[in-house]
Amino acid sequence: GNDLDVAEALTALALFDILRFPLFMLPQIINRIVEAGISFERVREFLLCEEYESVGEGTLKERGEVWMRNGTFVYDSKKPRLEDDEGRSDKGKKGGIGDLMRQHRRMMQEAQLD
Fold first, then answer.
1. pLDDT digit string, tens, across residues 101-110
2. Model pTM score
3. Range name among 21-25, 47-51, 90-94 with the lowest pLDDT average
4. Which of 49, 44, 95, 52 is nearest to 74 (CA)?
5. How many CB atoms are closer than 10 A to CB 90?
6. What backbone phi and psi angles, to 5 degrees, belong to 26?
7. Quick one: average pLDDT of 7-32?
8. C-alpha pair distances (Å), 13 with each of 4, 9, 10, 73, 107
9. ∠ CA(46), CA(52), CA(56), 5° rounding?
10. Do 85 and 110 form a contact (C-beta atoms < 8 A)?
């Protein structure tokens, strides 16, 4: 039983256009509120947790010293690889930090000679 004229139709369209952006943002706002609640809970748990014991100095005899002898590193790409004294790759052999440092030193010495 109601008559719909042009003025009422255009007013209704303008109001729906105004509501379009808030209705579009509503799911994102709800998601952000949930994420904020989770973050607040994590911060609360962190602040209420027990204190950790500090780790002592350990059993090191000399403090703050690291010795590296004959270290050489070879970088053909982003991944370093081990080489022996003749430049052969150690694909099957596991090398320790000493091998890496030996290769790095040799590489640095070769760079200084150039």
1. 777 777 777 7
2. 0.38
3. 90-94
4. 95
5. 13
6. -55, -45
7. 93
8. 13, 6, 5, 71, 74
9. 150
10. no
CB–CB of 35/42 below 8 Å? no
Q: What tokens were used for 106?
A: 């040799």
Q: What is the pLDDT of residue 3?
A: 86
**Hey, what are 50's tokens?**
């027990």
Q: Which pair of structure tokens corresponds to residue 92?
A: 């099957």
Measured in residues, the chain has a length of 114
Residue 93, C-beta contacts closer than 8 angstroms, at least 6 positions apart: 82
What is the C-alpha to C-alpha distance for residues 54 and 58, in angstroms, rounded to an integer?
A: 11
Beta strand extents in the chain (DSSP E only): none
